[in-house]
Amino acid sequence: MASVPTQIALLTRAPGGADSTCDPDLPTAPWQFDAVPGQPLPAPTYGAGASRQDPVPADAPVQQQIPAQYRLLPADELDRRIRTARQTLGSRVTILGHAYQRDEIVQYADFVGDSFQLAQQSQQHPEAEFVVFCGVHFMAETADLLTTDDQPVILPNLAAGCSMADMADIDAVQACWEQLEAVYGTEPDADGRVPVIPVTYMNSAANLKGFCGEHGGIVCTSSNAREVLEWAFERGQRVLFFPDQHLGRNTAKAMGVDVADMPLWDPRKPRGGNSEESLRDARVVLWRGWCSVHQRFTVDQIAQARAKNPDVRVIVHPECPMEVVDAADEAGSTRYIQLAIDAAQPGEAFAVGTEINMVRRLADTRPDLTIECLDPVVCPCSTMYRIHPAYLAWVLESLVEGRVVNQVSVDPVVAGHARTAVERMLAVGA
Ligand code: 13P
Ligand code: SF4
């Protein structure tokens, strides 16, 4: 099966095919969104793909346009130069790739996995002088927390952020915390459990991880959200979960928490839009955030997949809305989905509700199965999609020339507490 960019190029060239993609800009190169020296900054955008309509914070990292030679190189020449640079650097560099990256990038990764696995991997290569992280900004920040002080972490395109991570910022979380303290106080109950434990999804800025570390909280990923919530409920009467409402709701619901006891915190409203009473009764306070990739999946798509094949197994990621998770046969993290496909019997059919690059790759690795994306419209994660081979060639060749470009470093003021919260999560495991 063709890679996602190739598939998009084919679709958009076919008459009427453009309707099969979510964004007319998908076939164009990601540097159209980069800053050009001497020209006004481009309008902030996550780039083509699922997050295109999401508001971008004014201070989101901007990528300066890379040298023209990289933008002009044909795919086969980029491939040759990436391989040459990779070989020259040898064990001096480790390349990590998230499972949602395009094939054109994943092929160069030393390790491909979900955000939990990549956090573990970034800790396990002290021999590498540099870590090149082909994922998104919060993952590179986490890698910086876990690598040694003299190992720069490089993100090939600094504008590869995450629209969900940007839905919670430190000022809004701090304001929420103060309002919750006004309702709950700060005293533990008779069992020694504090009023509220902050839990941040890995998909958040380092200063939010720092907030959790400083306030007795923890980080989770989609592969250990349940174990992390159990950890939090042992220590607190309730949880403040940010930024993904869906992962928080789906996980807590599966643990038996009543949905009525999970008020939604809208950071734009006083007390998050809640009464004191509903906050007092809360078990989990859910931040109003979402992933624009996983929010696309619908109950209707599940009905259509079943109408096409009544035996189809529907598996969705827990970042999908609750109705979709409830209607699916199974819900699980990136790793869960990978393991389910690995263990499938020949001939089984799957409709998978997660990022299109991963679904396409799963289909390629198991031609004996029928694997389709639940969403018939091709729509990649906008920000993962901004990591194009041209940027990888540029960062690797810069390293060969002795220059570190696009380093992601966490402010030392927040790094200590952020590391504490991440290490608590790693200790809980997955
Ligand atoms: P995981 O890597 O934890 O499955 O998260 C999915 C995701 O959306 C990454 O940004
Ligand atoms: Fe963020 Fe969703 Fe993309 Fe993951 S898939 S990086 S949560 S926008």
Q: What is the fold's blueprint, element by element?
A:
Elements: H1 4-13, H2 68-72, H3 75-89, E1 93-98, H4 103-106, E2 111-113, H5 115-123, E3 130-134, H6 137-146, E4 153-154, H7 170-184, E5 197-201, H8 206-214, E6 218-220, H9 225-235, E7 239-242, H10 245-254, E8 264-265, H11 276-281, E9 284-287, H12 299-308, E10 313-316, H13 322-327, E11 330-331, H14 334-342, E12 349-353, H15 356-365, E13 370-373, H16 389-400, H17 412-428
Bound molecules: 1,3-dihydroxyacetonephosphate (13P) and iron/sulfur cluster.
Binding site for iminosuccinate: 98, 115, 201-203, 222, 317-319, 334
Cofactor: [4Fe-4S] cluster
Pfam family, one: NadA
Structural overview:
With 430 residues, the protein is α/β, with parallel strands linked by helices. It folds into three domains: 29-163 and 383-411, 3-Layer(aba) Sandwich (Rossmann fold); 167-291, no CATH class; 294-380, NadA-like (Rossmann fold). The protein is 39% helix and 11% strand. It has helices at 4-13, 68-72, 75-89, 103-106, 115-123, 137-146, 170-184, 206-214, 225-235, 245-254, 276-281, 299-308, 322-327, 334-342, 356-365, 389-400, 412-428; strands at 93-98, 111-113, 130-134, 153-154, 197-201, 218-220, 239-242, 264-265, 284-287, 313-316, 330-331, 349-353, 370-373. Helix 11 links the parallel strand 8 (264-265) and strand 9 (284-287). It is globular, with a radius of gyration of 21 Å. 1,3-dihydroxyacetonephosphate (13P) binds at residues 114-116, 162, 203, 221-223, 291, 319, 333-334. One of its GO terms (molecular function) is metal ion binding. One of its GO terms (cellular component) is cytosol. It is an enzyme of class 2 (transferase).
